[in-house]
Design a protein that fits this description.
- It is a single chain.
- By secondary structure, the protein is an alpha/beta fold.
- It has a single domain, classed as P-loop containing nucleotide triphosphate hydrolases (Rossmann fold), CATH 3.40.50.300.
- Helices cover 31% and strands 23% of the residues.
- The chain is built from twelve helices and twelve strands.
- The chain is globular and about 70 Å long.
Length: 344
């Protein structure tokens, strides 16, 4: 499939462009630690993110979501593919220029407790990026830290505390403030609410939305919670065993899912009211759990679990097929050769 087919919204400026990105981890064994296998954590992933938008990335644990985000920022060395962020080819940058690039792209981690140094005061944690990049003088840095704390809803007195004395939500606010310190254009949010109580999750989601408008940010929002992703994302990408199986506008994918895996995830969303229940797709249960990435089924990766599996699925892997405006799915059921005979 040609690269331009993966552009989301051709009429908009694309801040992020990912093309055929792959990341394989070697599996080694023996005294000499020879490579005996490999885990294909991310395989041939392509997408774009329009400037100022949020792309939500969802899927079960082991689908490659976090590896995708970290590889995009070169925290993992890529196996293949290209990533452009703000017209910068990330993987072509020499190591001497990576420091400058990291001013434009940051990450907020899943567990705020483990991502903060417990022995450093909050003000110093937020100030660290400014110190590393030698931004302004001491007085201006202090003012910048205080402004960031205010923007993320952290009372000024908390700047002089240490992380162990903060709640989970307060720690995450510190992590967000640190990520904003250098005025980045793009932030990877790696399950930023999954370690928090439900009431705090709502506050952090609202905060991220406000900051996106204030700072003109573009997000890659990684999560396993589809209820969360619907509230924060403009677009959604569903991953399974390292590949994108469906991608498109959030409302269209939720209302008309075109892949059995997406339908199974949506049908499992907890609901409270009958109205919410009616919005869910027909219940679709998958067999078993996600396979070991080293033992992917032949053909379609989902065929060993899919209730709609048929002969073609085990023979070859389907390609992403356009099923709507900016909406693509990787399933034979969407291809003309099969969809007249097989229904959802």
């Amino acid at each position: 499939m040609s690269e331009n087919k993966f552009i989301l919204d051709h009429d908009r400026e694309q801040l992020v462009e990912v093309s055929n990105l792959s990341k394989h981890f070697p599996v080694k064994s023996g005294i000499l630690q020879r490579k005996v296998d490999e885990v294909r954590a991310v395989e041939g992933v392509s997408f774009t993110i329009p400037k100022g938008d949020t792309l939500g990335v969802v899927g079960e644990s082991g689908s490659g979501k976090t590896t995708l985000g970290k590889t995009m920022l070169r925290q993992h060395s890529p196996t293949a593919g290209t990533v452009k962020i703000d017209d910068i080819k990330v993987f072509d940058l020499p190591s001497t220029q990576m420091k400058q690039f990291r001013r434009n792209a940051q990450i907020v981690y899943q567990d705020p407790t483990s991502s903060l140094n417990p022995r450093r005061r909050v003000d110093k944690i937020i100030r660290t990026p400014l110190d590393i990049h030698d931004i302004s003088d001491r007085s201006e840095r202090k003012n910048r830290v205080e402004k960031l704390a205010e923007d993320v809803g952290l009372p000024r007195e908390y700047l002089y505390k240490y992380p162990p004395s903060l709640s989970g939500g307060q720690k995450q606010r510190v992590g967000i403030a640190r990520a904003l310190a250098l005025n980045p254009d793009f932030i990877v949010l790696d399950e930023p609410t999954s370690a928090l109580d439900v009431s705090i999750q709502a506050q952090i989601i609202e905060l991220l939305d406000e900051l996106q408008s204030t700072y003109d940010l573009t997000y890659l929002f990684i999560t396993h919670d589809l209820s969360v992703v619907r509230n924060v994302s403009d677009w959604i990408s569903v991953m399974y065993l390292g590949r994108i199986v469906e991608i498109g506008p959030i409302n269209e994918v939720f209302s008309s899912p075109a892949h059995p895996y997406t339908r199974s995830l949506l049908s499992a969303i907890p609901t409270v009211t009958e109205a919410d229940e009616k919005l869910k797709p027909t219940d679709m249960q998958l067999d078993g759990e996600i396979p070991d990435p080293r033992e992917k089924p032949t053909g379609c990766a989902l065929c060993s679990r899919c209730p709609k599996e048929f002969e073609a699925c085990s023979k070859s892997e389907p390609q992403l097929t356009q099923v709507g405006s900016n909406h693509y799915a990787r399933c034979f059921l969407n291809e003309k050769e099969y969809n007249t005979d097989i229904s959802w």
